[in-house]
Amino acid sequence: MAVYSQFEDDKSAIQYLLNQDKINRENLIEGHKILLRGTASEEFADKDYRTSNETYVGYMDNGRIVIDYFPIDYRDIEEAIEKLLNFYHSGDFDDKMFIKSQILHGLIAVLQMFNDGNSRYGRILQNIKLHNLAKEKNFYPYTDPVIYGTRSYMPFRYDYRTLIKDLAINPDSEQWNKWFKFNLNRAEDTMYFLDEKLVQYKKARL
User: Fold this and answer.
1) pTM for this structure?
2) Of 23, 38, 94, 103, whose CB neighbour count within 10 A is largest?
């Protein structure tokens, strides 16, 4: 069931965070460092978070830099981490576990607190939170997160990045609703994928 195990760097970060009694500043940052190890961004794996404002969110278009937005000022990152964790551990929206986990995902992706891997880390935290809330409510007995949908996001990269940009520039209720709808669709894609895999697995065992 642990489909995410196909992604070795993500798996290590997920397992590290799942093994923590409580996610705090130190292990949140350490989990991100683990995420970057062995990747093209390994040079940042020894840094806690961004320490300059030279970062922008954008892309290259025929050799020309297109800037979508500038992320949070690096001097505000410590406060952002504190507020993020306060929300993570609060009871706010716990009765709407998909929504709460997707808010965390969106905040990490938009704030861009780290030098690289922000949206990937947002997906990890989203699914860890969803997993923990589902366990608390006795919705399923699995020891690892079942829904980890990085694969389901791949065909929608442009839409994904556009939604993050729109959240950063104009974070009103309309943009958040678009974000929730998009991520709920990706979760549904993953569940259909898992269901089909289970059918194939059962056939193979017969």
Assistant:
1) 0.87
2) 103
